[in-house]
Amino acid sequence: MNAERFEELAWAYGGDIRRWPLAVQGEAFVWLQGQERARDVLVEAGSLDAMLNASAPMSASGILRERILASAPKPRPAFQRGVTWFSGAGLAAACAAGIFLGATKASLFMAPAAVSVAQAGHSATHLTPAAATQAVSVSPTRTTTNTAAETAGASATGETAAAPDVYYGGAWFSGLESEG
Amino acid sequence: MIIDPDEALVAAVGRGEPAAIRSFVAAKSQRMMALAGRMLGDAAEAEDVVQETFLRAWKQASGWRPGPAKFDTWMHRVALNLCYDRLRRRREIATDTPPERADESPSADAGMISGETARQVGEALGLLPDRQRQAIVLVHYQEMSNIDAAALMEVSVEALESLLSRGRRALRASLGYMRDV
Predict the structure, then answer these.
(1) Using CB atoms, which residue from A47, A60, A71 is nearest to B30?
(2) Fold that domain B1-102 belongs to in CATH
(3) Measured distance CA(A2)–CA(A135) in Å, rounded
């Protein structure tokens, strides 16, 4: 430390040595002992500090803080990520099942001979192979809601009652051509 | 690696934790407003800069990894760049008169003399070259270390000290008569 360096530091960092870089504070305090000129330098720099401190900072208004908070990221609960994963997997599984069942049904309709289920008590309903390709939904669960009579009737004709129904034109069909 | 005192808070902000966000806004909004206010001298423009700085902070927080810079220093850099954009636009408008300054006096009750001092200090700061003003704002007002401020300004510590020294001498020259008031 020397007088020139001490003065430069005072002009750069102000009149309070405690606000100078840590690396030079010790030397500066030692230099200050017995140096009349060094004290004058600190007083001069300190008077400028006082003037600078008279200028209070602008304050962030409450409105600004509210605007900032409104733009902040929203919390995303952990369970939401689970639901998203579950929903995606469920949707994929449903799509896969639908494609599989649709393909199965379409292949049945491609057969030249239709299977009769009239004896099972269904109303006379015809679903041609061409129409079958327009079926938009397959319900495997419907097979489990058939009445006991339906099931028994279907069994009597040798038809499997477990064949899924087809939703077409706003109504459920057995999905198989029936006799009048 | 630098120890960042805001690391845990920033991580919680990144996760969208409301309490952390409120703490973060309370701590940083005032600091950013002080910075932008002193750089621009205009409250409305400073508020715009602060809001934009926070928008960028939200995006940065979730992926922030402690590295060579503190998050606070990163925010200062963003805010300063936004301030420089506005200062550049002002110069392009080419007004010969300095922009009107907002009243930065602490309060009307603080007295006419301190209010006048504050106004004149604000004006004197505004007349400094941008780099000198930035150095004084960062070190004196924002209380950044010389190393952080130098890194932020992308200059050496010696160059920072030179900017500080020249800036403060210029302020003394323009405000010197006030010492006798």
Answers:
(1) A60
(2) Rna Polymerase Sigma Factor; Chain: A (1.10.1740)
(3) 95
Q: What is the CATH number of domain B111-181?
A: 1.10.10.10
Return per-residue pLDDT of chain B as tens, 181 residues.
Answer: 677 888 889 989 998 899 999 999 999 999 999 999 999 989 999 999 999 999 999 999 888 887 778 899 999 999 999 999 998 888 777 555 555 554 444 444 444 556 777 888 888 998 999 999 999 999 999 999 999 999 999 999 999 999 999 999 999 998 875 554 4
Taking the C-alpha atoms of residue B48 and residue B25, their distance in angstroms, rounded to an integer, is 15
Distance of CA A36 to the CA centre of its chain: 68
Contact residues on chain B for A58, CB-CB shorter than 8 A? 33-34, 36-38, 43, 46, 102, 104
Chain A contacts in chain B segment 70-99 (CB below 8 A): none
Separation between Cα atoms, residue B125 and residue A54, nearest integer Å: 13
CA-nearest of B113, B121, B125 to B83 is: B125
Q: Which residues of B touch A18 (CB under 8 A)?
A: none
Q: How far apart are alpha carbons B16 and A129 in whole angstroms?
A: 56
A23: nearest CA partner in chain B: B146
Q: What residue segments make up the domains of chain B, in order of their start?
A: 1-102, 111-181
Taking the model in full, what pTM does it have?
0.63
Residues in chain A closer than 8 A to B143 (CB atoms): 19
SS3 content of chain A, % helix, strand, coil (to 5): 60, 5, 35
Domains of chain A: which residue ranges? 3-53, 101-173
